[in-house]
Design brief:
By secondary structure, the chain is mostly helical. Helices cover 64% and strands 0% of the residues.
């Protein structure tokens, strides 16, 4: 037997350091996470978004063809034609809303799986799709309910403000236009503020297993001192992927016009023009769909990283994660979920992290341990107590004082910088 513990390898590193990090780390690691588990992150998102796009497009086209086909049997300009046209437009619009809501449900599923996978990547784990779904399944209906709640709230707000603008426009057209413009300008900062304050709701619901109301409160509290950094993450990622989508769509539009001119220089439409148009549009949609999938993954990843950083600063989550990683790598099993151990507690704020990359994380000061009680003089020390300090040591001798330096002789010349004569 040896008094020293058995050697164990160092704990594996996750996609982020287990200490509070900054704005640049959140942005950078949001893109790096794609390489950690691309099959679950990008592969699953691409499959789900592609299936949703094809199903929605095919179903919407079928509804539109079936509803507008009746117009061919009616006389244009008649009352019956106008009624069927209005009904066909309304039916197609309702179908688009329903199919869009279903596609949004699939998008919620993608975001939830990304949150579960990135949370595992923080502690250097690479779950399978089944493992991620096992974590998401208990709260998936709550996530869908939250998405529908936000959709209904936005629809109600837009309907109310639009109705007010219309009523004012009926009374006075300039007044209605001014009201509509003011409402639109006012909704922009309101949307950005609410989107930032509610940015962490899905992460709180999935990682803590709470309901909609509790998740909203958690997101509101965690972003209280992290508003501007969270806002910056949302804006930069949205602008970056919006720019990439424009870079893809604009050249393809110009290419479509150029190929149409080459295939049909006289302007007459033919099979070649139709084929070229379909091919270019298909390539463009594939590129945009890929950009949208990456954007969903990166934005969901950034939400998890903001959530983890906020809890490290407010609730000491870094200590829970470090303890979990050390215990797991030491061979312990049946460990509790580290994201639920200290949810909602309040600790002293973590010190600002200014160390180099790869350095050890700063540690919050722990309460000072009481000093050991030494035994009284002459008493025999117990086996469990440390030996008393030695007594009656001679006092250290006072250091000898050096003699004061001899002032230089002003009558003797010496070169500048040379030692004085006689030293």
């Amino acid at each position: 037997m040896t008094a020293y513990p058995a050697w164990t390898p160092a704990s594996r590193a996750g996609i982020v350091p287990l200490h509070p990090y900054g704005f640049g780390t959140i942005l950078g690691r949001s893109f790096v996470a794609l390489r950690h588990n691309p099959r679950v992150l990008l592969g699953f998102a691409l499959v789900v978004q592609t299936v949703a796009y094809l199903v929605v497009t095919a179903a919407l086209a079928a509804v539109a063809i079936a509803s507008f086909a009746r117009l061919d049997t009616l006389v244009e300009g008649s009352d019956e034609f106008d009624a069927v046209l209005a009904g066909s437009i309304a039916l197609t619009g309702v179908a688009a809303l329903v199919l869009g809501a279903l596609a949004g449900t699939l998008s919620v599923l993608v975001q939830a799986v990304v949150v579960a996978e990135v949370a595992s990547a923080v502690v250097a784990e690479k779950p399978t799709l089944r493992d991620a779904w096992r974590r998401v399944r208990p709260v998936f209906l709550r996530l869908v309910g939250y998405a529908l709640l936000t959709l209904v709230a936005a629809t109600v707000v837009l309907a109310v403000l639009g109705g007010i603008a219309v009523l004012l426009g009926l009374a006075s057209l300039p007044l209605g236009i001014v009201a509509g413009v003011l409402f639109a300008l006012g909704l922009i900062p309101l949307y950005l503020w609410l989107a930032t304050k509610l940015f962490l709701v899905p992460s709180a619901m999935i990682l803590e297993g709470v309901g909609i109301r509790r998740a909203i409160v958690r997101s509101w509290v965690l972003t209280r001192r992290r508003f501007w950094s969270t806002f910056g993450v949302i804006v930069i990622i949205s602008l970056a992927f919006g720019f990439v989508a424009q870079v893809i769509s604009i050249p393809l539009s110009l290419l479509s016009g150029g190929i149409s001119t080459i295939v049909a220089p006289t302007g007459a439409d033919g099979p070649g023009t139709l084929v070229a148009f379909v091919v270019i549009q298909l390539v463009g949609q594939i590129g945009i769909l890929l950009v949208q999938c990456v954007a969903v993954v990166v934005q969901s990843t950034s939400a998890v990283l903001v959530y983890v950083d906020a809890r490290m600063r407010v609730e000491g989550l870094d200590h829970d994660l470090s303890a979990y990683v050390e215990a797991r790598d030491s061979g312990a099993s049946a460990l509790p979920d580290p994201f639920r151990v200290g949810a909602g507690r309040t600790v002293a704020p973590a010190p600002a992290w200014t160390g180099a990359v790869g350095a050890a994380a700063p540690v919050r000061p722990a309460p000072a341990a009481p000093a050991p009680e030494w035994p009284s003089a002459g008493a025999a020390p117990s086996p469990a107590s440390p030996a008393p300090p030695a007594q009656d040591w001679p006092a250290p001798a006072a250091p000898a004082q050096a003699a004061p330096p001899t002032p230089p002789d002003p009558t003797v010349w010496a070169a500048p910088g040379s030692p004085p004569r006689g030293s």
